[in-house]
Design a protein that fits this description.
The chain is α/β, with parallel strands linked by helices. The protein has 3 domains: 170 residues, FAD/NAD(P)-binding domain (3-Layer(bba) Sandwich), CATH 3.50.50; 72 residues, no CATH class; 108 residues, Alpha-Beta Complex (Polyamine Oxidase, Chain A, domain 2). The chain is built from 12 helices and 20 strands. It has a 7-stranded mixed β-sheet, with helices on both faces. A 5-stranded parallel β-sheet has the order 10-2-1-14-20, covered by helices on one side. A 3-stranded antiparallel β-sheet has the order 5-9-6. Helix 2 packs across helix 12. The chain is globular and about 65 Å long.
Length: 450
């Protein structure tokens, strides 16, 4: 360790990696972050529509996302946060049903009145449960079928879980769903209408990523994109260096290495790991994300978020950004995301933008019969590998520790946010936690896994 703190190498320049780097620099350590992609920011990367920046993968905040909100304010960007009422809908049997307020629920005729009441009571019950640990060994399908009835699972929740998690959809742990419902209700306004309020950073969330990058560099941190790590070098049971590829292959020595990459990448570059830890790395599967984005002349649907509860349609949801943030932010264009989460064997992941559009296009007229292809100004396709960890009942107890069995080697990725869902808030929270662990260990404060 140097006189100016530990020399710390961080693999991965997403939100977790950047946050970890920032907090460790604040604690007086030296940080060198290496990212395989040319662009930093991970899933918060952006591109331009009509002169305005927008995320390649849709993003918003709940009012309960206090960690990312605090960081945005710390970076001096709090005045750029806006909070808007969300418009949620369900598309079922060629009809859009609003699905925000208790009145919307009562009007959801695809299920009986009794089932509608049971569905509402289910939400109220789950939001009042303070401890979800008893839901770890029961699947969402089992619990909803028992509590709200098989029809509610078949029509409302089953299509979404199978659409998002594929063949594992019926194995999702109920604790994950309990947490999701609790957070969604907490982001609603008080009162009989209980409308959901969501947050967005004007100019895109890249505004705070860019500010964070600038702050890291001001503190002396080194950030390099386009620098893939080929191997984590260990000697005497301790991580001591990184072998880096790209245009300038070299070996970089470190006192500590923190990997913020997905488990399969970590296993490929890490030193040999004990069987117990390696098994945990294989315990949480991932789905890839894919978003087709259209810039349009007109609005397609009246909702911000439209769940597609019809599995004959080859996408999971439509997110119409400009029903949330004004089209003026994007040169007057209406912006529409087609969202999908896919198994790596899915043929959709092999398609290019034109092929995906030809597959999706016939289904838009089912959602809006007036749609005309002339509305399309431009289109883009983005794919995010290992974007969604899948927490099944089989995942319980199989989440790897941040402190690996290799001294000086730490892991921080989305498989370790269990039972939370992926998102900026929990990536930042995890980055701060791991930075604290590393600082304590370098100071001799702890050597026990966490």
């Amino acid at each position: 360790m140097t006189a100016n703190g530990g020399r710390i190498g961080i693999i991965g320049g997403g939100v977790a990696g950047l946050t970890t780097a920032y907090r460790l620099l604040q604690k007086g350590h030296q940080v060198h972050l290496l990212e395989a992609s040319p662009q930093l920011g991970g899933l918060v990367r952006t591109f331009e529509i009509g002169g305005g920046k927008i995320e390649c993968f849709y993003h918003h905040l709940f009012s309960t996302d206090t960690t990312v909100i605090r960081l945005i304010e710390e970076l001096g960007l709090g005045d750029q946060m806006v909070w808007r009422e969300s418009k949620l809908g369900v598309f079922y049997k060629d009809r859009i049903y609003p699905f925000v307020t208790p009145i919307d629920l009562l009007r959801f005729t695809p299920v009986s009145l009794v089932d509608r009441v049971r569905l509402g009571l289910m939400g109220l019950y789950l939001r009042r449960q303070k401890d979800g640990s008893r839901y770890e060994q029961v699947t969402v399908k089992e619990w909803i079928t028992k509590f709200a009835g098989p029809r509610n699972y078949e029509v409302v929740w089953g299509p979404l879980f199978r659409g998002k998690f594929g063949d594992l959809g019926d194995r999702i742990a109920m604790i994950w769903f309990w947490n999701k419902i609790r957070l969604r209700f907490a982001s609603r306004k008080a009162g009989p209408m209980q409308k959901e309020v969501l947050g967005y950073l004007l100019g895109s969330f890249s505004v705070y990523i860019e500010a964070l990058i600038a702050r890291i560099r001001e503190l002396g941190g080194v950030l390099e994109g386009g620098r893939p790590v080929q191997r984590i070098v260990a000697e005497g049971g301790r991580a001591v260096a990184l072998e880096v590829g790209g245009d300038r292959p070299e070996r970089l020595p470190f006192d500590v290495v923190i990997a913020t990459v997905a488990n399969k990448i970590f296993q490929r570059i890490a030193p040999p790991l004990p069987e117990e830890y390696a098994t945990k790395l294989e315990g949480v599967p991932y789905q890839d994300a894919m978003c087709l984005i259209l810039a349009l002349k007109k609005q397609v649907a009246p909702t911000y978020w439209l769940n597609i509860n019809d599995r004959s349609i080859p996408f999971l949801a439509l997110i119409e950004q400009t029903n949330f943030i004004e089209p003026e932010q994007y040169g007057g264009n209406h912006v529409l995301y087609f969202s999908n989460y896919l198994d790596k064997a899915s043929p959709l992941l092999q398609m290019e933008v034109d092929e995906v559009w030809e597959l999706y296009k016939p289904h838009i007229k089912r959602i809006n019969p007036d749609f005309d292809e002339d509305w399309v100004v431009d289109r883009w396709l983005f794919k995010g590998p290992d974007a969604q960890p899948v927490f099944t009942v089989d995942s319980v107890g199989r989440v790897p520790d941040h402190r690996t069995p290799i001294d000086g080697l730490y892991l921080a990725n989305m498989s370790q946010i269990y039972p939370e869902d992926r998102g900026q808030n929990y990536s930042i929270m995890m980055g701060e936690h791991v930075a604290q662990l590393v600082a304590e260990d370098l100071a001799g404060g702890s050597d026990k896994p966490s």
